[in-house]
């Protein structure tokens, strides 16, 4: 490990994460625990959660809790399900837990976090507000198979289409990938729309 703190490298990492970084990321750039504490005491870093910091010249995010959850679970975690609907503005329901998808090998329990263990295809992940997040089509398909009421899923589909966040073709393709309940709900929504 480099003994001299590299502020430029830490800034570069944090910049890609809306100003947030983990203690482990800082340690890898030469920041000892003591150096982290000094920077927090002098106001350069703000400790937002155990092991998670924010550079103070970055404004806090409206999705700070999602950043904290993502950083705690690691770089392969992706915001999903109801939490992703909230980020996209497709639901006004605040989920009781933060939903993330992680690789099957990474299942660990964390209070207030609902971990889904799935493999995501590269075209099912994007970035929004600086967060890795499932695409709108994948988010809706995941919401359709979760415990979200059907009416809320249908409303999210209609709003996403109206706002141009997703196409009907993308939703149908994702429904085919997911099959089961997601496929039925998405097809039912399109059938209902066609009858209007």
Per-chain topology:
Layout (H helix, E strand, L loop, with lengths): L6 H9 L4 E3 H5 L5 H9 L3 E5 L2 E4 L8 H10 L4 E2 L1 H8 L9 E5 L10 E5 L7 E4 L2 E4 L1 H10 L4 H13 L5 H11 L1 H16 L1
Parallel strand pairs: 5-6
Antiparallel strand pairs: 1-3, 2-3, 4-5, 7-8
Helix pairs in contact: 5-6, 6-7, 6-8, 6-9, 8-9
Structure characterization notes:
This protein has 196 residues and is of the alpha+beta class. It folds into 2 domains: 49 residues, no CATH class; 132 residues, no CATH class. It contains 9 helices and 8 strands. A 3-stranded antiparallel β-sheet has the order 1-3-2, with helices on both faces. Strands 4-5-6 form a 3-stranded mixed β-sheet. Strands 7-8 form a two-stranded antiparallel ribbon. The chain is elongated, with a radius of gyration of 19 Å. The termini are far apart. The model has no long low-confidence stretch (mean pLDDT 87).
β-strand percent reads 15-25%
Described by strand count, sense and barrel closure, the largest sheet is: 3 strands, antiparallel
Number of helices: 9
Q: How much is the average pLDDT?
A: 87
* Major sheet: arrangement of strands: 1-3-2
Radius of gyration: 19 Å
Q: Tell me the span between the first and last alpha carbons.
A: 64 Å
Shape: elongated
Find the count of extended strands (DSSP E, 2+ residues).
8
Task: Give the topology string: H per helix, E per strand.
Answer: HEHHEEHEHEEEEHHHH
Structural class: alpha+beta
Report the uncertain regions.
Answer: none
